[in-house]
């Protein structure tokens, strides 16, 4: 597989963007950065905004990479605490002439078609949701086979577990995050039949605070470690730092998500417990979309799926903690690519 060879560059880009994070980018605040060129990109973040060292930061890294290559500027907006202003964020970016406008996260899925209808000459993209069947032709869905990458995370957890007990912490109990859970559990079972997979969520469906509450993430993960797990995988956005804190306090291991979190966390104690991360190459997908847009090659009303075959998902190898099981991981990945293993999308 070629995926591992791409990880270091992506990690370095994410680490660089994280170091530039401005804590003011929350609660509806905005930031902008510019370079030469006419490209004007609008970026509406998911809960937590830039600086989550995960999903949002990966999207920002993709925009920055595109600007470095093509020139232009980016305007960033973050939702307020209850995320009730998501429609206003997209509207503001479109009204100000930013094009394309990129919505980071499935939570924009319920409202993006209305905004797209109001601005038919603006090109929109939404991460982790669909651009199909919205009734508009100016929305592209950037999707990821997170279940496939999570399957490999489950394989790694099972092969490294000495207690035959691993855990999963989801940020919000939604179908999208359940696809991470389903893949992880399937991978763990495939690698070590009969292993226990303990699943917990920080908040229920509709309550997006589970993506930005490290304290609650730590409590949930600590309960799983106390019950006997020695490795916990999180798909909880900014709450994942709490999972790392619990792992460090317990002398156990954790698996990050979205970006190479071994490279992006600030705390050496947290870094030491991150044995791998499940990579959703949001940065690559965003950069490719912007490049296509600049070349006039975006077709609205469609979805672009990033999976193992396209190297859109995978595992990180930073720290060398799973180098010894890479052969087994690669074998499972190839079976998925070849269609010999069908990874579930729901628990």
Structure summary:
The chain is an alpha/beta fold and 347 residues long. The protein has helices at residues 3-19, 55-70, 86-95, 112-118, 146-160, 175-191, 214-226, 240-250, 261-264, 268-271, 282-294, 326-337; strands at 30-34, 40-44, 73-77, 101-103, 124-127, 139-144, 165-172, 196-203, 231-235, 253-258, 274-280, 302-306, 313-315.
Question: What is the topological layout?
Answer:
Elements: H1 3-19, E1 30-34, E2 40-44, H2 55-70, E3 73-77, H3 86-95, E4 101-103, H4 112-118, E5 124-127, E6 139-144, H5 146-160, E7 165-172, H6 175-191, E8 196-203, H7 214-226, E9 231-235, H8 240-250, E10 253-258, H9 261-264, H10 268-271, E11 274-280, H11 282-294, E12 302-306, E13 313-315, H12 326-337
Parallel strand pairs: 2-3, 2-4, 4-5, 5-6, 6-12, 7-8, 7-9, 9-10, 10-11
Antiparallel strand pairs: 1-3, 11-13
pLDDT averaged over residues = 89
Estimated radius of gyration: 19 Å
How many discrete domains?
2
Which descriptor suits the 3D outline? globular
In the CATH hierarchy, what is the architecture of the largest domain at level 2? 3-Layer(aba) Sandwich
Which residues sit in consecutive blocks of at least 5 with pLDDT less than 50? Answer: 1-36
Q: What is CATH's topology name of the largest domain? A: Rossmann fold
Number of helices: 12
The beta-strand count equals 13
Widest beta sheet: strand line-up: 1-3-2-4-5-6-12
Helix content percent band: 40-55%
**Oligomeric state of shown chains:** single chain
């Amino acid at each position: 597989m070629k995926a591992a060879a791409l990880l270091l560059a992506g990690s370095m880009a994410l680490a660089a963007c994280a170091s530039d994070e401005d804590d003011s980018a929350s609660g509806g605040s905005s930031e902008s950065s510019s370079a030469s060129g006419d490209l004007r990109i609008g970026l509406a973040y998911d809960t937590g905004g830039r600086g989550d060292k995960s999903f949002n930061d990966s999207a920002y890294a993709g925009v920055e990479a595109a600007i470095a290559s093509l020139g232009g500027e980016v305007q960033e907006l973050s939702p307020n605490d209850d995320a009730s202003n998501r429609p206003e964020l997209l509207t503001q970016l479109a009204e100000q002439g930013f094009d394309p406008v990129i919505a980071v996260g499935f939570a924009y899925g319920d409202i993006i078609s209305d905004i797209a209808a109001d601005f038919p000459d603006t090109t929109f993209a939404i991460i982790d949701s669909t651009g199909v069947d919205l009734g508009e032709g100016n929305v592209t869905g950037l999707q990821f086979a997170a279940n496939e990458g999570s399957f490999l995370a489950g394989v790694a957890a099972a092969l490294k577990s000495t207690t035959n007990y691993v855990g999963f912490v989801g940020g919000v109990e939604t179908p999208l995050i359940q696809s991470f859970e389903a893949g992880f559990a399937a991978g763990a079972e495939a690698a070590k039949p009969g292993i226990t997979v303990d699943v917990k969520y920080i908040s229920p469906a509709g309550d997006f605070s589970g993506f930005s509450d490290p304290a609650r993430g730590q409590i949930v993960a600590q309960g799983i470690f106390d019950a006997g797990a020695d490795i916990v995988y999180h798909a909880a956005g900014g709450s994942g730092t709490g999972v790392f804190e619990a792992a460090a306090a317990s002398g156990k291991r954790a698996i990050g998500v979205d970006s190479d979190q071994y490279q992006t966390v600030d705390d050496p104690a947290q870094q030491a417990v991150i044995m791998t991360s499940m990579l959703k190459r949001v940065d690559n997908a965003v950069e490719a979309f912007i490049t296509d847009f600049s070349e006039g090659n975006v077709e609205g009303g469609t979805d672009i799926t990033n999976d193992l075959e396209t190297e859109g998902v995978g595992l990180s190898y930073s720290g060398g903690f799973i180098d010894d099981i890479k052969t087994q991981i690669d074998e499972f990945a190839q079976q998925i690519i070849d269609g010999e293993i069908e990874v579930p999308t729901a628990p």
